[in-house]
Amino acid sequence: EADIYQTPRYLVIGTGKKITLECSQTMGHDKMYWYQQDPGMELHLIHYSYGVNSTEKGDLSSESTVSRIRTEHFPLTLESARPSHTSQYLCASSEASRNGTDTQYFGPGTRLTVL
Amino acid sequence: KNQVEQSPQSLIILEGKNCTLQCNYTVSPFSNLRWYKQDTGRGPVSLTIMTFSENTKSNGRYTATLDADTKQSSLHITASQLSDSASYICVVSDRGSTLGRLYFGRGTQLTVWP
Question: What is the DSSP pairing of strand B10-14 with strand B108-113?
Answer without folding.
Answer: parallel
